[in-house]
Automatic annotation (TrEMBL):
This is Rpn family recombination-promoting nuclease/putative transposase. GO terms for molecular function: double-stranded DNA endonuclease activity. Keywords: Plasmid. Belongs to the Rpn/YhgA-like nuclease family. It comes from the Bacteria. It comes from Raoultella terrigena (Klebsiella terrigena). Coiled coil: none annotated. GO terms for biological process: DNA recombination. The keyword Disulfide bond does not apply.
Length: 309
């Protein structure tokens, strides 16, 4: 929800002068809310909320105000949108639902755990009378009944964690990706080779797609020996062997370079430690007390014991 920072239009200024007053807003809602909605709202708890959901470039056509309140079902909001353009927006119902969802999102971002009930209200002041369009957003679809069924039911879920591997193996071009997504976090990928190789041998994927999958394993997986995994896979899937061996060689080279770098770092670290011990020995020989030496060098009592011996 944006803060209002543009110059208000006469429509916007007048609308907000009235509807931002809780007593006036309460009268408005008592008069215009449908009885079944009014019955669930505690209008005595109305509280004006800051900001606006209307896009900056549409402020000359629309104004809005948001009130929070308590309902019989918990927290709620009433969002009043006024349309003061001469030609009504035929997609107003969709606009109302978008702003309602934005209010829900703002509510969640404030730390609440449940979605609030948001009641959109359109206040129409256009020249055309009566208002010509439905305010039921589902009516904007070619098949409102089908849309209503879709958006009032649980959405499709693909939970790869509960699909048996044998079933995944039959998922054709999606099999390899699904199998990897399911097992990407296991430490030992050796067993995965036995499941993955037959899927790749089936020939549903190109070499570039196989390479992408293997890079995914290397980057996102938790295996301690990705190189061995890739080499084994290259032997088991010869039609992609060259591409896979290239990856294995790259991993081997990276491992060598990492080992060299680690050796250098360890060498530097060991050299720094020897220098610190030498300084500490000199300090002790010059009569500086042990606590001061430890404080200045960062060494421990055990470290100083090594010097003594």
């Amino acid at each position: 929800m944006k803060k209002k920072n543009s110059t208000p239009t006469p429509h916007d200024a007048t609308f907000r002068q009235f509807l931002t007053q809780p007593d006036i807003a309460r009268d408005f809602m008592e008069i215009h809310l449908p009885a079944e909605l009014r019955a669930v709202c505690d209008l005595s708890t109305l509280k004006l909320e800051s900001g606006s959901f209307v896009e900056d470039d549409l402020r000359q056509y629309f104004s809005d105000v948001l009130y929070s309140l308590k309902t019989t079902a918990g927290d709620g909001y009433i969002h009043v949108l006024v349309e003061h353009q001469s030609t009504p927006d035929k997609h107003m119902a969709f606009r109302l639902i978008r702003y309602a969802v934005a209010a829900m999102q703002r509510h969640l971002e404030a730390g609440h755990k449940k979605l609030p009930l948001v009641i959109p209200v359109l206040f129409y002041t256009g020249k055309r009378s009566p208002y010509p369009y439905s305010t039921r957003w589902l009516d904007e679809f070619d098949d409102p009944a089908l849309a209503g069924k879709l958006y009032s039911s649980a959405f499709p879920l693909v939970d790869v964690t509960v699909i048996p591997d044998d079933e995944i193996a039959g998922h054709r071009s999606m099999a390899a990706l699904t199998l990897l997504q399911k097992h990407i976090h296991q430490r030992d990928l050796a067993e995965l080779v036995d499941r993955l190789a037959p899927i790749l041998l089936a020939g549903y994927l190109s070499s570039s797609q196989v390479v992408s999958l293997v890079h995914y394993i290397v980057q996102a997986g938790e295996t301690s020996d990705a190189e061995a995994f890739v080499r084994e896979l290259a032997q088991r899937v010869p039609q992609h062997g060259d591409a896979l061996m290239t990856i294995a060689q790259q991993l081997e080279q990276k491992g060598i370079e990492k080992g060299i770098q680690l050796g250098r770092q360890e060498g530097r670290s060991e050299g720094e430690r020897e220098a610190t011990l030498k300084i500490a020995r000199t300090m002790l020989q010059n009569g500086i007390d042990r606590n001061t030496v430890m404080k200045m060098t960062g060494l421990t009592e055990d470290d100083l014991a090594q010097i003594r011996h």
